[in-house]
């Protein structure tokens, strides 16, 4: 009976983690380039339907819950701004963070006072030659062209190329916060098929209706867990106070 209480309690904690993930997705509906998360527990159930897991043996009756990043493409919205850039396809921009090289799909770029291309949070955007610098005194922003291959063209000359990496295995990436990703496994190879769109931004890939339905489902399961614990507590109380009574 105590074991069943433990399982029910763990299930409720898992539902709380699920609710946190869904709530975070909903909170970032309007965040450019945001990629939703889904707990691995849900994803495992989906994958078990298409993969053969018969060779694996369960080591515990308590399920593990981790998170997987959904890198599905978000809609591209035109802005007309010179330094707004979106990726069409499977790729990530490279930026320089305090924790080393990081990656993002948020292409809201601008130039700082030194003429360095930076993210909305002021992190330098990386090109194949390092930080990208444009001479604002000699160049007007309207003269800057970023073509489909990511080449940065100023006055007809290519000064650098955006450093993009592919996403052959999304499991190799982990969220760092501030809409950034960190590579935790594999190589940072350039993407094979990708197109860069100047004057566009990628919208969040969160689908509000789906997330709201998930939230209601999770709440229902959480309530069920509460009821199960309540009933088990009543049975345990009866066992201690009634069945165990002598005479």
Question: Would you summarize the structure shown here?
Answer:
The chain has 247 residues and is of the alpha+beta class. It has three helices and 18 strands.
Overview of the structural elements:
There is one protein chain. With about 250 residues, this protein is an alpha+beta fold. It has three helices and 18 strands. The strands form eight sheets. It has a three-stranded antiparallel sheet with strand order 6-5-14, with no helix packed on it. A three-stranded antiparallel sheet has the order 11-12-13, with no helix packed on it. A two-stranded antiparallel sheet has the order 1-2. A hairpin with a 2-residue loop joins strand 9 (about 125) and strand 10 (about 130). Helix 1 runs antiparallel to helix 3 (about 210-245). It is elongated. The two termini are about 25 Å apart. The model is unreliable at about 55-65 (pLDDT under 50).
Per-chain topology:
Layout: H1 2-27, E1 37-39, H2 40-47, E2 67-69, E3 76-78, E4 85-89, E5 92-97, E6 100-104, E7 110-111, E8 117-118, E9 126-127, E10 130-131, E11 144-146, E12 151-154, E13 157-161, E14 164-165, E15 173-177, E16 180-183, E17 194-198, E18 200-202, H3 208-243
Antiparallel strand pairs: 1-2, 3-18, 4-17, 5-6, 5-14, 7-8, 9-10, 11-12, 12-13, 15-16
Helix pairs in contact: 1-3
List the helices and strands in order: HEHEEEEEEEEEEEEEEEEEH
What is the rounded Rg?
25 Å
Mean pLDDT equals: 82
Q: Work out the helicity level.
A: 25-40%
Shape by Cα distribution: elongated
Counting DSSP E segments of at least 2 residues, the number of strands comes to 18
Beta-strand percentage? 25-35%
Biggest sheet architecture: 3 strands, antiparallel
Instruction: Look at the helices and sheets and give the structural class.
Output: alpha+beta
Give the strand line-up of the largest sheet: 6-5-14
**End-to-end separation:** 25 Å
The number of helical runs is 3
* Number of self-contained structural domains: 2
Uncertain segments are 55-64
């Amino acid at each position: 009976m105590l074991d069943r209480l433990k399982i029910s309690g763990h299930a409720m904690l898992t539902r709380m983690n699920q609710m946190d993930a869904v709530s975070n997705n909903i909170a970032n509906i309007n965040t450019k380039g945001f990629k939703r998360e889904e707990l691995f527990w849900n994803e495992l159930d989906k994958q078990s339907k298409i993969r053969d897991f018969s060779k694996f043996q369960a080591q515990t009756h308590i399920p593990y819950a981790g998170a997987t990043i959904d890198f599905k493409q978000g809609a591209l919205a035109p802005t007309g701004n010179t330094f707004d850039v979106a990726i069409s396809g499977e790729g990530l921009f490279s930026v320089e963070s305090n924790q080393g090289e990081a990656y993002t799909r948020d292409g809201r770029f601008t130039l700082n006072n030194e003429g360095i291309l930076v993210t909305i949070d002021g992190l330098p955007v990386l090109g194949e030659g390092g930080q990208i610098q444009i001479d604002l005194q000699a160049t007007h922003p309207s003269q800057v062209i970023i073509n489909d291959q990511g080449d940065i063209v100023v006055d007809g000359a290519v000064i650098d190329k955006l450093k993009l990496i592919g996403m052959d295995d999304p499991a190799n990436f982990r969220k760092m916060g501030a809409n950034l990703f960190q590579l935790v496994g594999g190589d940072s190879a350039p993407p094979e098929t990708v197109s860069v769109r100047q004057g566009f931004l990628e919208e969040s890939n969160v689908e509000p209706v789906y997330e709201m339905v998930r939230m209601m489902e999770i709440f229902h399961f959480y309530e069920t867990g509460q009821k199960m614990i309540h009933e088990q507590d009543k049975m345990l109380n009866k066992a201690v106070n009634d069945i165990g009574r002598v005479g």
